[in-house]
Amino acid sequence: MWGTSLRSSLAVGPRGPNVFPEYQKRLSKSKKTSFVHCQKSGSPVTKTCALIVNSSSSLTTDLMVKDRVPYNTSSPGISKDEDGIGIVKFLRGTNFFVTGATGFLAKVLIEKLLRTQPDTGKIYVLIRAKSKDAALKRLRNEIINTEVFKCFQQIHGKSYEAFMISKLILVVGNICDSNLGMDESCMSIIAKDVDVIVNSAANTNFHERYDVAVDINTVGPGRVMAFAKKCKKLKLFLQFSTTYVNGQRQGQIMERPFINGEGINVENVVNRNSPSTAALSAKAFDPKQVSQKMKELGLQRARIYGWQDTYMFTKAMGEMLLSSVRGDVPVVILRPSVIESTYREPFPGWIEGNRTMDPVVTYYGKGLPPVFPVDPNGVLDIFVSHIPVDMVVNAIIAVMAMHGTLGKSEISVYQIASSVVNPLVYGAFTKCPCLDAHGRPIKSHIRREITSHINSSRMPSPNGKHSGAVDKFVRKAMEQAKHLASVYEPYCFYGGRFDNSNTSSLLASMSKEEQQTFYLDVGNIDWTDYICNVHIPGLRTHVMKGRRQSS
């Protein structure tokens, strides 16, 4: 039963999520480390515990003070010279190991690496599949033949696929498996060759099952780190995260790593009245209810300890785990805010799938949401001040070059966000509404329908019946608005502002040529121009495929 698995694998201490203290020993001693595995059906099979209650864990009294001051040890500490960081030089001959390689971010990263420095070494791409043939098919369909590489295809012409196959080394595996699903011989070969590991694999569903999210977002990075410790010449481990792992912290949030067992909402943790994991596991649920109960448990746990949802909570615990088990492996944690379409390269507006803000943009463009709850004076990181994916990729490459060259055994954090350096509040968005095909400001048509619906309820129609079409339309629109509001409410009223001092120092260390090639200054983004002339057209072209959607 799921309760038994939960009891042995997903327990949380009274002060915060605490990574199992013996975890590092288990990673180093066992060839096949036992974890909570995701089966093909998505159900968990527990072999041993990854997280455990630790009643002795405690939060330091100055924890909240630390949120307001810089974390000094993570500053780059490299002076600028004429050559800057030496990014292109660093990339030459460097071999990479990339998880989550078929994802939105990883594709843009691979494209930029190969286009900027064709002499980049091998890029090992970890792809989950049932067989090598299936993995090769995914490599071609989800990386090589995707739109984002079209400029690269034009450069190489007929030799494009041969070049890509020579650079991208397919590795069949899964971060939910011990040894990442690789056999010993394969792992040994790669471990001798890799210089930089980029872990971008994640489950980004805000309300995922707790066990599934922990397996991928929390324990997954630990499995990748176990592999990293076997890499003979590793220069850097880069963990891709998000600014929102900072949970419900308020004020200016500095770039610092988490402490193992750290919680945010101390008062709620101490005085919580919610059921314990053991109490939940003792209940008998119908198998059909298990998935929903696990989703509810994840959201409940997240909010007890001060996080908005299961995704952010499990990603934060993943950072804690890395900090605990890394040993002397150099680690950089990159935390962008919400990632959206390309700003400039390889061409403006490229996007794959509906990203975080796009459901709201789509409904707004159709005039569907009657209302949407938001702080009028709030900074809309999740809707407006998001970060173009190519700027995030440029930051990744610059960070890899800087810390890969320094070779220091430290853990550093970089936040890529605009809420401090280039904020945009909701009021500015309403002053410049999007325009329809006729150049008219888009208004919420549902207001008129709601008014007529209310009027019709007061004054019956001649036949004594309401309009069924109006009723159906209003109910659908209201349900959509309620769903979006419930998902985004923690972010629409978010009181945190993400400091990016380390990222600013990184930019200052780059030469003028590097700043142009690897542009990452979010302070220069004209948000109105980007959203109206780049992102929304890109959304229509690459996601909606140019089709018009009727309201």
TrEMBL record:
Check the record and name the Pfam families matching this protein. Answer: NAD_binding_4, Sterile
List GO BP terms, alphabetically: long-chain fatty-acyl-CoA metabolic process; suberin biosynthetic process
> Is this entry keyworded NADP?
yes
Keyword entries, A-Z: Lipid biosynthesis, Lipid metabolism, NADP, Oxidoreductase
Entry's EC annotation: 1.2.1.84
Q: Which InterPro entries match?
A: FAR, FAR_C, FAR_NAD-bd, NAD(P)-bd_dom_sf
Gene Ontology terms for molecular function = alcohol-forming long-chain fatty acyl-CoA reductase activity; alcohol-forming very long-chain fatty acyl-CoA reductase activity
Lineage top rank: taxon = Eukaryota
What does it catalyze?
A: a long-chain fatty acyl-CoA + 2 NADPH + 2 H(+) = a long-chain primary fatty alcohol + 2 NADP(+) + CoA
Q: Spell out the protein name for this chain.
A: Fatty acyl-CoA reductase
- Organism expressing this protein natively: Saponaria officinalis
**Source taxonomy:** Eukaryota, Viridiplantae, Streptophyta, Embryophyta, Tracheophyta
